[in-house]
Amino acid sequence: MEIILKQDIKSLGEKDDIVNVKPGYGRNYLIPQGFGALATSSAKKILAENLKQAAFKQDKIKKDAEGIAERLTEVKLSIGAKAGETGKIFGAVNTIMIADALKQKGFDVDRRRITFETEPKFVGEYVANLNLHKEVKVKVPFEVVAE
């Protein structure tokens, strides 16, 4: 029995895969739980069209991310933070501050896509990693300065 998976199932396949399963497993578990649908000829045609459209959308998103990544290579940010005499920062420099600084420069990047190589704890230079797309990643240098 052929089933089109609606979500990833460990040891069976990933979403939108067409897999062969035993009829009882498909009828009694996969289809009633909403994990799969019968792979009829019309369902296969619909799946092929959906995959084609999704690939087109993903390609456009990736190209947009690459364009932003090219422009981000020239950006250097400066983040102000309160610091003591030794240069240790009071509080923390977080991804929200980086996202706001990027927004001021004209880049709209979600804060959840930003990570740090090393946590900024002192005044100095650091690097933020931006995951714009699963295949497009950019390193943006920033400097923490004492206010």
Secondary structure topology:
Elements: E1 2-5, E2 18-20, H1 23-33, E3 36-38, H2 41-72, E4 77-81, H3 95-104, E5 114-116, E6 124-133, E7 136-146
Parallel strand pairs: 4-7
Antiparallel strand pairs: 1-2, 1-3, 5-6, 6-7
Characterise this structure.
- The structure is a single chain.
- With 147 residues, the protein is of the alpha+beta class.
- The chain folds into 2 domains: 2-61, Ribosomal Protein L9, domain 1; 69-146, Ribosomal Protein L9, domain 2, CATH 3.10.430.
- The chain is 36% helix and 27% strand.
- It contains 3 helices and 7 strands; from the N terminus they run E-E-H-E-H-E-H-E-E-E.
- It has helices at 23-33, 41-72, 95-104; strands spanning 2-5, 18-20, 36-38, 77-81, 114-116, 124-133, 136-146.
- A 4-stranded mixed β-sheet has the order 4-7-6-5. Strands 2-1-3 form a 3-stranded antiparallel β-sheet, with helices on both faces.
- The longest helix has 32 residues, at 41-72.
- The termini are far apart.
| Beta-strand content bin | 25-35%
Quick check: average pLDDT? 91
> How much helix, percentage-wise, in residues?
25-40%
**What is the N-to-C order of secondary-structure elements (H for helix, E for strand)?**
EEHEHEHEEE
